[in-house]
Amino acid sequence: MSRICLALLLQGSVTHEYNAFFWVMVALCGTVATGIAAFLIYCAWHYRRRSPNELPSQIDLNIPAEVTWIVLPALLFVAMFAYGMKVYFDLERPPDNSEDVYVVAKQWMWKTQHLGGQREIDTLHVPVGRAIRLNMISQDVIHSFFIPAFRIKQDVLPGRYTSIWFKATVPGTYHLFCAEYCGTEHSQMLGWIYAMDPKDYQIWLQQGAAEGSLASTGEKLFHQFGCSNCHHFSGHGRGPNLRGLYMRPVQIATGQTVIADETYIRESILQSRAKIVQGFQPIMPIFQGQLNEEQVVALIAYIKAIGPAPGAEMPSGPGEEMGDYGGIRPDLSEPVAPATKPGGR
Ligand code: CUA
Fold this sequence. Notes:
alpha+beta, five-stranded mixed sheet
């Protein structure tokens, strides 16, 4: 049993890492608390006053004892911190081969979208054995995405993407809760996670992909809202060339460099004047109020999917320090232009 747990732990599944962390902490704190209590009781009895006039003997400073009880607990606390930090970083950094799923929360439902274009409400189908990275945003107030069985809980905020990942290991149906009071029907903002055998999952995916991939929906919006009029892929448009933009450092007019992650791209769509790319004019219309979060998610999926131009030098590769930006990494596994074939992914 423990060997199975260890094997799962080594795979990097956050669920098992969390469980192990929890029990190590319980064992450690339990041992220390029991030890202190036992020592306290022993001292109370051993050093009790034996006669009404008894005076305690004077105890001199004992340097080795002082050093021991300062250094040992300090080392223990540092070890606990380091262990907790490792678990935290593992939770923040999804594995390279993780599958992206977008979650939009609103009062009072969870809308989930797969890259293939499959959409769900209050449910999420995932394959077992595959890391799933959730990119989440709220359309209104703060919600919190909570799957107790997978030991993950992450606030879902309006105006900013948050992300978390998990890997289901056993097929089954698991509870999804909203864990942040978000209004009248908060307690009914419930859902189910269906962890499926990878083969069943492929069948499920094929049944729901009629509308085309998320990126192809984004491509349609890209033309419909006129983005393509200025953002030419030749690089000669009035707006910056978006090819290969995702997770690339971008120099903005103030001289700062920002990383083109999901949150930056979303801001550049909705509040287009917030961070003007160096060398460009602030001429882009503001799309706040014209696009909903699901449309923004589709546009971002499109921008991610268009990738670098064929043969172009990729300015940033995996293995550079990219992994440190909020756990979001460049996804180079995307095909170069799936968006030209709606439903092709
Ligand atoms: Cu959404 Cu509570």
